[in-house]
Specification:
By secondary structure, this protein is α/β, with parallel strands linked by helices. It is about 30% helix and about 20% strand. The protein has a six-stranded parallel beta sheet with strand order 9-10-11-12-13-14. A four-stranded mixed beta sheet has the order 3-2-1-4. A four-stranded antiparallel beta sheet has the order 5-15-18-19. The protein is globular and about 65 Å long. The two termini are about 25 Å apart.
């Protein structure tokens, strides 16, 4: 197969051709032949987008899950132009050792999903590393599920066994949150200083135990200089940011939508949101990762935290480019190249993140001149709602290729 169009890398945007054989890119360059499919100048061809922070909520027993399983999450991902995801471990039965991790891997295999799914293993009180390389996730404070720490000292003691591992941190100080537990609103119960304190501690742990660290769903302006300084002194640390912390802030919360706008960490002040946009633009934040949380509307009404974002990933990227002045090259870095670098050690022989010979032929094509407005009927996530319902984005998903084949999803 020969594809032609404007191909985006972190370095440049060039009009060129891509030759694909099977599930691999074998050649990139001009004048390779007559293209089987040509995309016009209104389209941008990226290495397939990767979302390295989702919660599929599949049941490890293999039974049908009422809120989202790997199959419906995969359909939502394809709908959003996402070719690979990484699923978090705070399940009812968390993957914390070789046996429980293998059970969850088998659930993924049984679903026969078209996208690639990387699985995080969980770190909790008393856990130990698996025998094979996997990415790990640690919850410093309460989240959905029971896999979290109640004190930072307990976390320090556990991390001693994980020296040299790849560990992602949910940065909220559990002891400080306990001090604010009687506050009136969700935002006040999880204030910015909890995230800043936890950031300081996470960076200490990354340095102390020689971790390859990642800070999840970052949201607070005061922590950005800390991340920047840690990178400058050579710590192996990266950070995510979500669509909701880039698009919404506390000013968007009303009495009627408060439940839908609840997540952990919560929405912050306008200056924090603007700081997240600036930090993503400059590269202090490394990934656009959704924290896709497919809770039902009934659960949201009961105060469960999180929002679903897989279906709208690609459309949201067009907002970043057209409305927030991000360059396509910047998008190629935080949506394609860096997510690929994160998962590639765990998904051989697949190789994501670049439109180059030897990489997996998974592509995301955005049309920057065809706006789209999402309604519930356009969603594939089983939870059936989105905070972006009714929002018109300036562009839309034109096409998605998964391992050498064009994907087509129909309701």
């Amino acid at each position: 197969m020969l594809i032609e169009g404007r191909v985006v890398s972190p370095e440049n945007v060039i009009s060129t051709q891509i030759r694909i054989e099977g599930d691999r890119i074998v050649e990139v360059g001009p004048n390779l032949g007559v293209a089987d499919r040509r995309f016009g100048d209104d389209c941008l061809i990226f290495a397939g987008f990767g979302d390295i922070h989702i919660h599929a909520r599949d049941d490890v027993s293999g039974r049908e899950c009422y809120k989202e399983d790997f199959s419906t999450a995969s359909k939502a991902a394809v709908n959003g132009g996402v070719v690979h995801v990484a699923d978090m471990p705070n399940n009812h039965v968390p993957p914390i050792d070789d046996d429980s991790y293998a059970v969850k891997q088998q659930v993924v295999a049984d679903r026969r999903v078209p996208i690639h799914i990387t699985l995080y293993a969980g770190i909790g009180p008393g856990t130990h590393p698996l025998t094979k390389p996997v990415p790990y996730k640690v919850y410093m404070g309460p989240s959905v599920g029971e896999l979290y720490f109640k004190t930072l000292r307990q976390l320090d003691e556990t991390l001693a066994d994980y020296r040299g591992q790849a560990v992602s941190f949910h940065c909220e100080d559990p002891e400080m949150m306990d001090q604010h537990k009687s506050a009136a609103t969700h935002e006040q119960r999880r204030p910015p200083e909890c995230e800043v304190s936890a950031t300081s501690f996470a960076l200490q742990m990354i340095e102390k135990y020689d971790l390859t660290g990642k800070l999840c769903h970052y949201s607070v302006e005061a922590g950005i200089p800390m991340i920047r300084a840690a990178k400058d002194r050579g710590l192996r640390v990266t950070a995510e940011v979500t669509p909701h912390h880039l698009y919404f802030d506390e000013s968007d919360i009303t009495d009627s939508n408060r439940g839908l706008m609840q997540m952990n960490p919560p929405l912050r002040a306008t200056h924090d949101r603007l700081a997240m946009l600036a930090a993503l633009r400059e590269g202090t934040l490394d990934y656009l990762a959704t924290d896709h949380a497919p809770h039902t509307l009934e659960e949201k009404a009961r105060g469960i935290s999180g929002q679903p974002h897989l279906d709208t990933y690609g459309a949201f990227v067009t907002w970043l480019i057209a409305k927030q002045n991000f360059t396509p090259q910047q998008v190629a870095s935080f949506c394609s190249a860096k997510p690929g670098e994160f998962v590639n050690p765990y998904c051989s022989p697949l190789r994501f993140g670049r439109v180059e010979p030897g990489y997996t032929a998974s592509l995301t094509v955005l049309n920057m001149s065809r706006p789209c407005t999402f309604e519930r009927k356009d969603l594939f996530t089983k939870c059936g709602w989105s905070p972006f319902e009714g929002v018109t984005f300036p562009g839309s998903l034109e096409a998605i290729m998964l391992r050498g084949e064009w994907a087509s999803e129909q309701k």
